[in-house]
Amino acid sequence: MAVISEIPTEVLIEIFYLLCKNSINVCELNNSYCKENFPWAVGLVSRQWRTAFLSYPPIWASLTLSDIHSSKSSRIWNPESYAKEVSRRLALYLERSGRYPLRLDICLWSVHTNKFITMALEMLSACSHRWRTANFDLFLDRPLDSILPCKGKLPTLEWLEIRCRADRKHVRDIFEVAPRLTHAYIEPWARSSGWILPWTQLTELILMLDGLFVMENRDVPYLLSMLHNIRELRFTFNHDKFRGFSQFAPTPLNQLRVLEVYHPAMLSWFEAPSLCEIYFTDCQERSNYGEPLDVHGQISSLVQRSSCRIRKLSFASCREFYVGTLKDVEELVIDYQHSRRVRPSVDISSLPKLRLLTIICSIEENVESLVNSLTTALKSARVPTRSECSSGTPTSLLERVTVELHCDQEQPKIPKILLSVADEWPVVVFRTRRS
């Protein structure tokens, strides 16, 4: 401790801030559950450390207001006392955050926590001029009345994530005026009941479309026509069955570079001369497992009308897919992580400029299927084996094949059958990631 005590306070607080991976949960009142976690643990080391982390505003500017993981705390308090204590701590943490921009993570699902919701949200709304990022995950839209005062008072908000349907018209435009908002995640969205945002200034948008009637009511072209500055656009869908899309003229999105869709037919919606990355998240995995996913026609049509160059393709699907010949693709990502069946083989011989291939999957399932898929890809790309490399055989353009293995263990063992593939083909590398 003698050496540690000599560390200047300004250095200590920067170290603490870098270690602060999780935001502070205002609703967790039983400190015994979190005393071993950062930042609370440092307060038990010495008075100097406690003073340092208590007095550094950025540590207190990232707050979680959640009624899901705080159930253990709430059991030992009666509702009125619990609400008062949450409000007291929230006020204290906001005071400690000074004028630093706030990062908020608000998750309210219980119908039995109204005692503290109103007070807490009103308190946060009073600080809306300091919101930088805000994440709302709400089971019901009742709490939204408590943040109505922040309407028109969001000068620093840059990122908004909201999972809640805006069924009541008087709350739909809470975030309509936010001059610095550029990134948004909205779930679900429809023109009649969705949120109204400053669409024209967004550069990144993730949108879950609300049912098939979104297409039937032509909500999509209405929205696309406002996304003048969008660079990254990702669509998800809350309906398992695909029954086709309404046809409409492609919308020009001149700044769009990254696009994610859940069906190739969605590419017909766009004219995007700057587009260079396409992600396919297949919504038909369960019902149409046996049917190949054919993306060649739609991609070729998009490239022809947009004069764009697609350099990266990504697939999250358990189906076999056909890409055809795409001369500009340099990187291919295939995500088998959620596949519960045999992983289909990958033929990449039609991608002449492919340099990087990434395969993502779970380490616990179907290793033999992964080996077959991997070796088929290597052979189709004419990647030289270790013996061919040593003999001076001309190499393919494929520079690296990364196999990303997701698992539940901290330090998993890579199966020998996979390591044997890397022994034979030097371009193959493995990396593991905690699920």
UniProtKB/TrEMBL annotation:
Specify the protein name. Answer: F-box domain-containing protein
Q: What is the lineage of its organism?
A: Eukaryota, Fungi, Dikarya, Basidiomycota, Agaricomycotina
